[in-house]
Write a structure and sequence with these properties.
4-stranded parallel sheet; alpha/beta; 3-stranded mixed sheet; 15% strand; 300 residues; homodimer
């Protein structure tokens, strides 16, 4: 883990005075938008790529893990192939390509990402390592480097970041509460947490938070989350977009998935966080200019 | 200065790998977008407000110094009035008001900011301190706290930031070169530097970089710049907008004035910086959503 810690950028902690005043809630932000490749995913990707014994890495990703793995592979002189949904954000596809990786677009209503990954794994002739963007011990280990630095309200898709942060905190003896922030349109984590077992979405949810368009939590992650996660908060699509605008005003360019924690704080239906000073994890900043332009010029 | 250093936020240094690769120029960015009130101006404003013996502070500003002084005044329980051009950015006017300051809008084609400031200074009955946004010893002293941290290619309007950075560097014995970055549409610093004396713009230039819409360099600043500045680079309006887009891709929300250094690096007509690794100062992030949305969705 030493080499991972040396290579990742420390998170950027911000104390947005005007935003705290406006929302009448004292908040702290931990931004991973300045992490290599613009999201926290580089922590996991570099850790996993470094640990892999193979020279060709294959993954499925809506974009951020793909770009992170592509960059990590380029640093380590490995080959990289990324299966991405056809509807992926253009900047995310471009980012993966810019680091020299091969992009395989799939129409997810015809074939799932996982199936296409399996097809490719069979087709490729070199020795290949199939890496999950969120459900892999090295992914959790990589993400735990963020938990070592700080903690609290965390965007959730497959659960790799929240599980990683929990592991990082617990390894340091911290009992700090970790809450997950999820789009209401893709609330499988909330339902899984309530049911006590992994519940899947029937198809990839169409939420604007593309990092949370996963079908379900990872198994490894769910084991950790079931024991240690304090709860799951959900946010509507309108709240997610409002959160992007608030972060814009606070100078932070965040992608919709990155704004999930603030979105859930705005909603805060359940009041679970009441009285606490939440540390919001802003997990990434990669977003198409057209999408971002539309969101920031829209009205609340 | 101890209390100023305690209160300002340290600058955020970023090393944008993808951007360096794309521009084929190795760059470093020092971002002041996360400074209190979203720009470097807080350094100067807090220093000047702290040093002032008066309880009412009056200034003219296109916005960032106004917001910074308003916030500084609120921290120090002082009254604050800000004269702003009628065409000021809406978010900048709102920011000044949000910190409890009084805004006086002027139509700069009818009466100059300086004249209106003088009128108000005569009208107000309490003891008042008229502070220049860029030409004041305490403004330079405040800005020098940034020079102590880092150095290099700096946006220039009235010259308060570049002079301050130079003072900060020289005070620490650093001979690091400092270059100024200016809109071609408002190139009075370039002309002043060439002429060896202060040359003014005939009216406030209409550049999109509203922080550089000053009529001329400050006298105090020019004395310092004439001796110590390595040169002035200029950028077209198109280059400034392209720089905003590049910084957007590098996750940094910068206002047009904040993107000046990168804009001049993109142009780099003169080649003066060739072979050096420029540290670009991104001075602020305050920009209207509509203006920002238009810039980032436009094509190069």
């Amino acid at each position: 883990m030493w080499r991972v810690r040396q290579t990742v950028r420390a998170t950027t902690v911000l104390e947005p005075v005007a935003l705290s005043k406006q929302l009448q809630k004292p908040i702290l932000i931990a931004s991973e938008t300045f992490q290599h490749t613009g999201s926290f995913k580089f922590r996991a990707a570099y850790c996993a790529a470094l640990a892999s014994k193979f020279d060709h890495l294959l993954t499925a990703s809506s974009g951020n893990f793909g770009a992170a793995l592509a960059y990590a592979a380029s640093l380590l002189n490995k080959r990289c192939t990324v299966v991405m949904p056809h509807a992926s954000s253009a900047v995310k596809i471009a980012a993966v390509k810019s680091f020299g990786a091969q992009v395989e677009l799939v129409e997810t209503n015809k074939i799932s990402r996982a199936e296409r990954v399996q097809q490719l794994a069979n087709e490729f002739e070199d020795r290949i390592d199939v890496l999950s963007a969120y459900d892999h011990p090295m992914v959790i280990a990589g993400n735990s480097t963020l938990g070592e630095e700080i903690a609290a309200l965390v965007p959730i898709g497959g659960g790799g970041l929240s599980a990683g942060i929990i592991m990082g905190l617990r390894a340091k003896g911290s009992k700090l509460e970790v809450w997950a922030a999820e789009p209401a349109m893709a609330d499988d984590a909330w339902r899984s947490f309530a049911a006590g077992e992994i519940v899947s979405n029937s198809s990839e949810p169409g939420t604007i938070a593309d990092g949370a368009r996963t079908l379900s939590l990872g198994k490894l992650n769910f084991e950790i989350l079931q024991k240690e996660l304090s709860g799951v908060l959900v946010a509507s699509e309108a709240e997610i977009e409002a959160a992007v605008r608030h972060l814009f005003s606070a100078q932070l360019k965040a992608e919709p998935t990155g704004a999930l924690a603030l979105a859930c704080l705005i909603g805060a239906r359940n009041g679970q966080l009441k009285g606490r000073r939440p540390l919001l994890i802003v997990s990434g900043g990669n977003v198409d200019p057209a999408v971002y332009g539309r969101i920031i010029t829209a009205q609340d």
